[in-house]
Amino acid sequence: MTKAEDLDHTPLSKGKYGRIHKTGGLTPSRVAEIDPSYLVWCYENWVPKPCSELLYRDCLKDIRRSPGQRESEEEEERRADRHFGVDVWGQG
Question: What's the domain count of the chain?
Fold first, then answer.
């Protein structure tokens, strides 16, 4: 496993899903399954990041597929690209 993958399987220590069990919080990979929008919020607001960039982007895709999402797929991609410093033509 890579360091980023390890992070996705390390229980959260804070937040709404941190320390809710005797053994610790839920892992980011589990939170992604039950509440992907929360994990996106955590990634965008916490220091250090609670999960890998790959899991974050997967959560963005899941949110996009959810009913009631306001942003179009293109708008969401642009927002993610701006966040990671990539211009709209894919040139970093």
Answer: 1
Distance between CA atoms of residues 34 and 43, nearest Å: 16
Q: Please tell me the predicted confidence (pLDDT) of residue 92.
A: 46
Range of the domain at 17: 3-65
Token couple for 39: 């994990």
Residue numbers of the chain with a pLDDT score lower than 50: 92
3-state secondary structure 13-81: CCCCCCCCECCECCCHHHHHHHCHHHHHHHHHHCCCCCCCHHHHHHHHHHHHHCCCCCCCHHHHHHHHH
| Residue 13 included in any domain | yes
pLDDT value at position 61? 94
